[in-house]
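User: I've been trying to design a sequence by hand for this structure and keep getting stuck. Would you show me what you'd pick, starting by listing the structure so we're on the same page?

Assistant: Good idea, let's start from the same input. This is the structure you sent:
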């Protein structure tokens, strides 16, 4: 490792400004000569810039020449409005779908901040005008096309198959009469999931910054997932119950919805009503329909958005079996709690957890083998059937990552692992040495490495 002081002046290097110790706040600064390129500008939950702001790292947002956004999850894009309001005026490169999804996601955050301001008189974050200003700086690029950046670098975007529009970046540039290649994977998806296509192999480079969320995990196969999920639904329908599916609004809701409709159409599931209670997912659906492959909308199975709380109450208290997908992937908030409170003590019903559940979340407590759970100020009898459905993850697991990185092993200088818990990174580090990488680095927060 080198410190800022000992770094060669202007020598290509990357500073790790977020997403090092956890999966939050993804943000990496590539510098060479007088250029500064920021890859992702994500938010840690409930905070503005990680720690105390970009300026505390000696980086004036106005000094950044361009931003490259891998995808629209808030831990990758959530600080963009601050970056712009604090002086960044350069282009923000991403795919067209990422641009559209990011706008919906950031406006939703702004709306929450504005509501809080209206309620408490205190501003907790950016507003819609800040988001609109940031959106003006977006420049969209298609997968595969080579694009010039400020006449000093060329970028190419590859499908990372993590969520609609997600990409990895390959950037080529010259410094001191030498060619350099930098690759940033963003979040990598999996082989064999519907809708978003297959992830592209990671190209070799002088430096790769690679995610490692599930570097030490092996997901259930999608075939196992189909088996688990369809049998849970059939069991529930047989006992005249309802299936509740908490799901994050961006991506997971759409993947689950697509699968359920597809399975009903192909006879894997009985045709029962599907309701979706998630205003944000409904807005995101419009972007999915605009950018999605024919595969996504090729089913005739209808479903219904629950537009208001009254609609939701009416549908959830009806007698007949149905599937309700609702916002709040870990049951920590969102519309799912309205449904869970009605059905939690009904042993005919089931709760299908299709997302990661962090240790103390209500979702994790629902999974724990205890008879009761506590939330909203009281204890609830947990008589609903609870099942973890593991195979919907949008992140590559150990097998996917080694397959995606295998071609790059022999010709890559350094590979830096980010966006993962320690155990995941350590397991992947070992795997990558076995694969033939010669220099695997696990950076700490605010470390800088030369390319
Ligand atoms: Zn992501």
């Amino acid at each position: 490792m080198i410190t800022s002081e000992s770094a060669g002046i202007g020598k290509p290097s990357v500073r790790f400004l977020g997403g090092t110790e956890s999966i939050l706040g993804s943000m990496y600064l590539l510098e060479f000569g007088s250029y500064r390129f920021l890859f992702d500008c994500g938010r840690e939950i409930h905070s503005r810039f990680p720690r105390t702001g970009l300026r505390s790292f000696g980086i004036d947002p106005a000094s950044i020449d361009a931003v490259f956004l891998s995808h629209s999850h808030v831990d990758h894009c959530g600080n963009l409005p601050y970056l712009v309001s604090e002086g960044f005026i350069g282009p923000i490169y991403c795919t067209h779908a990422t641009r559209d999804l990011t706008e919906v996601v950031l406006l939703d955050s702004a709306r929450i901040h504005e509501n809080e301001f209206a309620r408490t008189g205190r501003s907790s974050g950016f507003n819609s005008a800040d988001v609109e200003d940031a959106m003006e700086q977006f420049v969209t690029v298609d997968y595969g096309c080579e694009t010039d950046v400020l006449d000093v670098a060329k970028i190419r975007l590859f499908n990372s198959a993590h969520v609609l529009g997600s990409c990895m970046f390959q950037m080529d540039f010259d410094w001191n009469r030498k060619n350099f290649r930098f690759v940033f994977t963003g979040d990598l998806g999996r082989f064999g999931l519907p809708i978003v296509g297959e992830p592209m192999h990671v190209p070799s480079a002088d430096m790769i910054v690679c995610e490692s969320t599930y570097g030490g995990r092996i997901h259930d196969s999608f075939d196992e997932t189909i088996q688990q999920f369809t049998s849970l639904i059939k069991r529930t329908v047989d006992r005249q119950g309802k299936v509740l599916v908490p799901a994050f609004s961006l991506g997971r809701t759409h993947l689950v919805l697509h699968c359920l409709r597809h399975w009903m159409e192909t006879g894997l599931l009985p045709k029962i009503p599907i309701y979706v209670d998630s205003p944000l997912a409904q807005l995101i659906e419009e972007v999915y329909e605009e950018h999605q492959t024919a595969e996504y909308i090729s089913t005739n199975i209808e479903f219904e958005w629950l537009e208001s709380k009254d609609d939701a109450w009416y549908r959830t208290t009806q007698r007949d079996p149905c599937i309700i997908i609702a916002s709040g992937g870990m049951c920590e908030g969102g519309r799912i709690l309205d449904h869970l409170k009605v059905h939690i003590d009904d042993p005919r019903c089931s709760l299908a957890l299709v997302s990661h559940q962090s240790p103390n979340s209500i979702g994790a407590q629902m999974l724990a083998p205890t008879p009761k759970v506590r939330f909203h100020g009281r204890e609830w009898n947990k008589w609903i059937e609870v099942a973890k459905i593991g195979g919907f993850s949008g992140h590559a697991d150990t097998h996917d990552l080694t397959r995606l990185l295998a071609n790059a092993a022999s010709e890559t200088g350094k590979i830096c692992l980010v966006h993962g818990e320690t155990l995941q990174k350590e397991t992947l580090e070992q795997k990558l040495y076995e694969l033939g990488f010669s220099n695997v680095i696990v950076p700490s927060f605010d470390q800088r490495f030369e390319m």
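That's my pick for every position. To get oriented when you compare it with your attempt: The pocket of zinc ion is lined by residues 71, 73, 162, 187 (CB under 6 Å). The CA atoms of residues 264 and 283 lie 24 Å apart.
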